[in-house]
Amino acid sequence: MSWLKLRCAGLPEGSAVEKPNRAQKPRLALSVPLLVVMVLLSSAPAIPAKDKTPTTRTVSGIVMDEAENPIEGATVELKDLQTKKVLDVYSQENGDYQYSGLRFDHDYTVQAAYRGMSSGVRQVSSIDTRWHLVLNLTLLKSTK
């Protein structure tokens, strides 16, 4: 049976029937792959965005003397007030020191010492929600 007979079946007599243009690509053939891609993308599980909020905090700063010269080799002591654990690091050539991986729910103290001089004790509170604290420490001569 020809396409014309199939196309005309069920049409009232005298109705016009268009012959398909073979030069035109069928629209349905282009739509099906697009539809499949859209269905696949819409059914894919949503990938949650990475949470950029840090889970630990960092404390860093510079150890310097009263004239604001950086001090290399000063002992910087960090004490966890909950566990009573004490960590020591030495300041670098430009006076820098850093502690990382500290818990947000703990309180800490930080103090520097070098050749009979020491800084005041600085506090890091669990109430403070900043993930990076900069605590510069100034060494003062002991007044004994």
Account of the protein in words:
The chain is α+β, with helices and mostly antiparallel strands and 144 residues long. It folds into two domains: 3-43, no CATH class; 57-141, Carboxypeptidase-like, regulatory domain (Immunoglobulin-like, Sandwich), CATH 2.60.40. It is 16% helix and 31% strand. The chain contains two helices and ten strands; from the N terminus they run ααββββββββββ. The protein has helices at residues 3-8, 27-43, and strands spanning 57-64, 75-80, 86-90, 96-102, 108-114, 117-118, 122-124, 132-134, 137-138, 140-141. Strands 2, 3, 5, 6, 7 and 10 form a six-stranded antiparallel beta sheet that branches. Strands 1, 4, 8 and 9 form a four-stranded mixed beta sheet that branches. The longest helix is centred in the first third of the chain and has 17 residues, at 27-43. The termini are far apart. The mean pLDDT is 81.
Keywords:
alpha+beta, 2 helices, 144 residues, Immunoglobulin-like
- Helical content stands at 10-25%
Mean pLDDT across every amino acid position: 81
CATH topology-level fold name of the largest domain: Immunoglobulin-like
| Secondary structure: number of strands | 10
| Overall 3D shape | elongated
Main CATH class of the largest domain:
Mainly Beta
CATH H-level superfamily title of the largest domain: Carboxypeptidase-like, regulatory domain
Q: What is the rounded distance between the termini?
A: 115 Å
Total of helices: 2
Could you tell me the radius of gyration in angstroms? 37 Å
Structural class: alpha+beta
Into which percentage range does the β-strand content fall? 25-35%
- By CATH, the architecture of the largest domain is named Sandwich
Order of helices and strands: HHEEEEEEEEEE
Largest sheet: 6 strands, antiparallel
How many domains would you count in the coordinates?
Answer: 2
List unreliable stretches of 5+ residues: none
